[in-house]
């Protein structure tokens, strides 16, 4: 980390209001690295847990943060807050297995009893 680089104090709020991974982070840290830390610190007593960084979305100031960007690139606003702690919201969006959601053309034809062509 470069000298004089100001650390950002963050905490992450999950779906039930629990705050996790409260710490200070370098502005050069990527969003993907943050997500890995969140997964590592995810409470084990929760019924829903993320399996990979793609299962999580981070929201700051109403915007989804991109995995490849750093905190500095994501224009994380800090310094204006009296407590100095920024709360980001974590949204779980687990990947859905293809075999459960996609139906083959044959299955769709079986369901379509009127033999109509559906575009």
TrEMBL record:
Lineage, uppermost ranks: Eukaryota, Viridiplantae, Streptophyta, Embryophyta, Tracheophyta
GO cellular component entries: plasma membrane
Membrane topology: Lipid-anchor
Protein known as: Membrane-anchored ubiquitin-fold protein
Segment forming the signal sequence: none
InterPro entries: MUB, Ubiquitin-like_dom, Ubiquitin-like_domsf, UBL3-like, UBL3-like_ubiquitin_dom
CDD domains: Ubl_MUBs_plant
Chief location of this protein within or outside the cell: membrane
């Amino acid at each position: 980390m470069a000298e004089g680089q100001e650390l950002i104090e963050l905490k992450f709020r999950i779906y039930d209001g629990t705050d996790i991974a409260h710490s200070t982070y370098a502005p050069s840290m990527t969003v993907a690295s943050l997500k890995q830390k969140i997964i590592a610190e995810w409470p084990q007593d929760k019924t829903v847990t993320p399996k990979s960084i793609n299962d999580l979305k981070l929201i700051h100031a109403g915007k989804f943060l991109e995995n490849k960007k750093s905190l500095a690139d994501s224009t994380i606003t800090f310094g204006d807050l009296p407590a100095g702690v920024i709360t980001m919201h974590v949204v779980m969006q687990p990947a859905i297995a293809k075999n459960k959601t996609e139906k083959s053309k044959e299955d769709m034809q079986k369901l379509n009893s009127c033999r109509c062509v559906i575009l």
